[in-house]
């Protein structure tokens, strides 16, 4: 019997204004077989579905379990698409695709749609299986080698261009422990005479003046880059003036990927020296070390290539060459980009960090603290048991200055007084 139908709004069964010979269709949201009248007059709620899409006649069929059972064995064609609903509903659909009898009931259009969805699902499963296999079989080929002279050599990880896969391999044997906010040092903690107070910020994007009241006092203020939007002269001058108004005795600064006038590769006319000279209220570090209170602080602006690309380098050899310049006696490391697996997770759930930087830190340098920014949405702290990692981004993903500075203390080395600095 032929009937004119409308498309069922939630499970997408049927086609508007077309006649079909089917007397039933199966709802992929509630996995119940429905009747033929799919018109949207007098809709009522369907158990298990996310919206109201069944007619009163269809709801009668929900209570007719015997009829449903007999319809399941029917040889009549059935329309089906993969739902966007609950996991249970999706699983039910994929299970039915394993049944040859069910496959035989699908019309060509629905089968094509469902087949594409199954292929996508299988692709994700295949990727997960591949990573799990790597985690079981892969030896950490990035582990260091030690020369006869005792020098530690960090190699390039063979999956360096796929940080998500590398992270899945490494997290089985290494520590990636997030530090919750309640365990961070409160910003109003008193400053002790026998400890050096570090205050960390990053990614203020020409808005440092908006967050002055939120920056606590300390001995050393660290800014991990992206203090401007594109490194214009006016931006640098305004930042320098605002930085100078802060009370911290020492201020340490590196550039980020937005400071295009500080990088010879991206600076118009390569006049980077003139731009750096505009910074007079802070110590600017670019692949250099400064010693304060007997504590070695090293700054480097580099990060994997991304978007606005000052100081951006390809993953692997080029970045590793920069990390090899970090002295092994570094106590506080500042980079703009994060290491792999520590405060580097993007909004799209991708890992943005550099595995060669991670290995340099964990196998050779082993600093007490590593401060960085770049990934605004990953603001926070983590640890590997030796080094504390700090993403100090002040701006959130929407470039609003709503995230807090992060502070920490380092005890003064023996025989060192703050008054000496």
TrEMBL record:
Residues 40-81 are annotated as: Disordered. InterPro entries: Calcineurin-like_PHP (IPR004843), Metallo-depent_PP-like (IPR029052), UPF0046_metallophosphoest (IPR051693). Residues 54-63 have a biased composition (Basic and acidic residues). It comes from the Eukaryota. Gene3D superfamilies: 3.60.21.10. GO terms for molecular function: hydrolase activity. SUPFAM superfamilies: Metallo-dependent phosphatases. Residues 64-76 have a biased composition (Polar residues). Belongs to the UPF0046 family. This is Uncharacterized protein. It comes from Owenia fusiformis.
